[in-house]
Structure formats: structure tokens, C-alpha cells
Amino acid sequence: MGKMMSDLLIDVHSHPLLPVWIKAFADATGQNVDSVRLAGVPLPRWSEQAQIDMMDRIGIAASVFSLPGAVTAITGKAAARFARILNEEIANIMARHPGRFGAFAVVPLDDIDLAIEETRYALDVLHLDGVGAATHQTGHYLGEPHFDDWFAELDRREATLFVHPVPPPGYVHRPGAPDPSILEFMFDTSRMLLNMVLSGAKARHQRMKVISTHAGGTIPYLVSRIGILEPHYGAGGDRPTQSAEQLRDAFGSFYFDLAGSPWPATLDAIRHLVPPEQLLLGFDYPMMPAETAVTAIDSFRAYRGFDAGARAAIEAGNAARLLPGLAARMART
């Protein structure tokens, strides 16, 4: 790579809209493959060369792919087969562009045994950098007992889990309603984080490193309110209550990317929850156009709440530490 990590940008939040996935999505939703819409919005065009060109133009050294939710509408062995196809195609893209891409694997979370099998294949054979998941699997939020064996596997490996929001269970997009990414994604991230904390799942799997997207949704804003109300109203069911300090520490154990979030008010909130070492950059390409990445970088670098060392860590160093395989590939090129 020829540069120090302090001179680089690593983007941990990028979605490769693979033709094989677009066709499957179009078929499942009864759409024309050439004009697919997602929640009423046209799906943007993507190609690996277009992404490379965008990265070179903006100065992004490496981007990390994820397709969370790509197989949530499929079940059983069909979901496992499709996850394998997606993971192998992503691994091929990584091989064609050494050091430019990393990836969080797609796993079929309706069947945890199959999820563990695909996790092992993706990490041990394809050498992907971690695994990805949606905030919930058909209404079952991460942190519920359904996921315990998979979490144990990730914890044993000290693996990195990237969690991306999807619309909440039962969501129906009304004509004329805003895209769910505007509000619903933030709320679903908050539900996932709260469930991971109140269930104790995060505390039981401390070696598993979890990246939550979009600066943690509403949690940095609500963490103090949760700390006041939860000890009084309870954690739900037979879950034990936690003190405000325990809750803040638990929420503070996550990593957070700043996709769509590097603005002063958001950064003020998130830096009161976690230190700079737990923050990462992400640009959500191509769901967000390239010019928004430029605006995000400018806003982040103009923010005065981080010193130069913290900014360098957030821009690349933290990602390199969390994803050592990617860092090694970058160093070899």
C-alpha cells in the first residue's frame, strides 16, 4: 500500500449489489430485474469497477462489503446455498482487487447449525474478515436464545460481527411514506442493541466484537433515559434489571460505524458513550451516492472533538485492528 495507516481511509460499510442477488430479489418480489425498487426507491447501479473508481477518486484505500439480510426471506438449505454463492462471489471480487476489499460473510440465520457451518467456511476457507447479520431474523432480534450457539462460535473465534438494520417485523411500506432507512433503520438498530444488552447476550460473549451501524441509531441519545427507566420498569420478562452504570458500560462495549452520521450533534453524543478507539468510518455506497462520502469526510475532519490521533484511528487504525486480515492484505499491496 505504501502508506501509513494514519494516511488512509478504510470504509467498513459498503454493499456490493451483485447481479445474482438483484435477480433473486427481483424474482422474490415479482419485479423486473432491470428496474428493481427497494421500499419504493430504485435500487442504485453498482459494479466493482465503479466502486474502485469511486474509492480512488475520494481517497478510500479499502472498503468492506456486507449484504446483511440478503437471505432472510429464504429458509433452510436454500438459504445456505444462496449464502454460499454470495460469499464465494464476494471472495472472487476480493481476489481480483488485492488489498482493496474486505467482507463480512452472509449467513443463513434461520437455521443456526447452517449458520455456524457457513461461518466456518467463510472465515476458514474464503478468509473473509467477519460475519454480517441483520438486526433481526424474521422478528427474532439478535440477543434472543435462538442465536446463542452461533454467538458462542463467534466468541470462541474472537470474530467481528457487523450488524445492519432492516425494517422492523411486520413493516409495510405505505405509498408516499419515507424510505425506511430514514427513521426505521435507526429504531431497529436501537431495538437490537437494547435486546443484546438486556438479554445479557453481549456480556456473555465479550470476545465477540460487534459493530453497530449508523452511530448506534438512537442509543447515544437514549442511553441515560434507559438507565433511569429500566431499573424501575424492568428489563422485560424474567430478565434481571441492571443499574444505570451497568447499562452504560454494556452499550459502551460495542463498536460503531459513522455511516450517515459524522455530524457534530451525532459525534458529540457518540463520543460520550464510547472512546474514539471504538468508532469507524463507513459510507454506505452505493445506497448513498459517492458525493455524500465527500461531504461526510469533510464534516468528520472539521469536527473539533477528536484530536489528530483519534481522527487517524477512526479513519483507518481501528478498522485495521478489528480486521487484521484486511490490514495484512493491504500491507502486501
Automatic annotation (TrEMBL):
InterPro entries: ACMSD, Amidohydro-rel, Metal_Hydrolase. GO terms for biological process: secondary metabolic process. One of its GO terms (molecular function) is carboxy-lyase activity. It comes from the Bacteria. One of its GO terms (cellular component) is cytoplasm. Transmembrane segments: none annotated. Residues 10-324 form the Amidohydrolase-related domain. Keywords: Hydrolase, Lyase. The keyword tRNA-binding does not apply. Pfam families: Amidohydro_2 (PF04909). This is Amidohydrolase. The lineage of its organism: Bacteria, Pseudomonadati, Pseudomonadota, Alphaproteobacteria, Sphingomonadales.
